[in-house]
Amino acid sequence: MEDNVEVVTIDGKDYAILKEINHSNKTFLYLSNIVDEEDNLIRKLDEKDNNLIVPLESEKEFEIACNLLLKYIVN
Amino acid sequence: MENERYLNEYERIKKRSMSGDFVDRQQARKERRQIRMQKEEKLRRIRRVVVAASFALMVAASPVLIHNFVDNRIMDSLVMDFKTEVIAPETHRTDDNQHYFYDEADIADKITSMDDIDEAVYLLQVNVGEHNTNQILEHTDYGSFDGFKEERGYESTEDFMRRTREHILDKTKNEENHELSNMMQESDKDDSIENDFQRMGEK
């Protein structure tokens, strides 16, 4: 079974958006390079402009994003 | 080895997540950029991120964990180097090829010529065990492992191993900091050279 997966270009590379998770007015995006499975990253939607996909601001934010993904998997 | 792979993946994802371009999603959606992906592949890719996420949580929950992990990697590297350079060349097979033995005198010569005898005996002990360490130290002025510990001020083997490990780790980290400091000083020198050229130009 196949899914349609949205693709965005970051730093010249194409990434598929695998998952989005909303939490406390923030939306985290979990992305994977479509030609390199080892190249993964997490981004978020800018809080002021939801059309903008931006890097995470801190290690703390990264930990929160990881925590959310784990909760999603467990549940 | 597995932990190192996870750590590398975790560090890579973290670094990539906190840097790079902003992306206008609305523009990307206008271009209707999509691909078809098998559910299994999607799950597999998410799992990779989950592994890194798990490691992230372990690190967040216990900074001691990552600290110990780095220390263990340093010690593993030193033990392996010692084995390659000191022990392996002095390890020989018996004539029947059923056993091996150490050239104890040659190993003793090597360790007594090293700058840091405590470090050398620590690495020896980790590699060949207490009995063989004792046999090898019989070929030195210490006479035995007990003689070495007494002369160097250690109460027991446990005391020696614990204190020497701390000493080795401190020394290794200080050497790395010193190297970094030298690199930064070199970079400062370059700046002053640039200033000299600038001043010459102004004349």
What does this structure look like?
The complex is a heterodimer of chains A (75) and B (203). With 75 residues, chain A is α+β, with helices and mostly antiparallel strands. Helices cover 21% and strands 49% of the residues of chain A. Chain A is built from one helix and five strands; from the N terminus they run βββββα. Chain A has one helix at 59-74; strands spanning 2-10, 13-23, 26-33, 40-45, 52-54. The longest helix of chain A is centred in the C-terminal third of the chain and has 16 residues, at 59-74. Chain A is globular and about 30 Å long. Chain B is mostly helical and 203 residues long. Chain B is 76% helix and 6% strand. Chain B contains eight helices and four strands; from the N terminus they run H-E-H-E-H-H-E-E-H-H-H-H. Chain B has helices spanning 2-17, 25-30, 39-61, 63-87, 104-112, 117-137, 145-152, 157-202; strands spanning 23-24, 34-38, 91-93, 100-102. In chain B, strands 3-4 form a two-stranded antiparallel sheet. In chain B, strand 3 and strand 4 (100-102) form a beta hairpin. In chain B, helix 3 (39-61) crosses helix 4 (63-87) and helix 4 packs across helix 6 (117-137). Chain B is elongated and about 80 Å long. The N and C termini of chain B lie far apart (60 Å). The model of chain B is unreliable at 190-203 (pLDDT under 50). Chain A binds chain B through residues 1-11, 14, 16, 18-19, 30, 32, 34, 37-43, 45-46, 51-59, 62-63, 65-67, 69-70, 73, and chain B through 9, 12-14, 16-26, 28-29, 33-39, 42, 44-46, 48-50, 52-54, 56-57, 60. Strand 1 (2-10) of chain A pairs antiparallel with strand 2 of chain B, so a sheet runs across the interface.
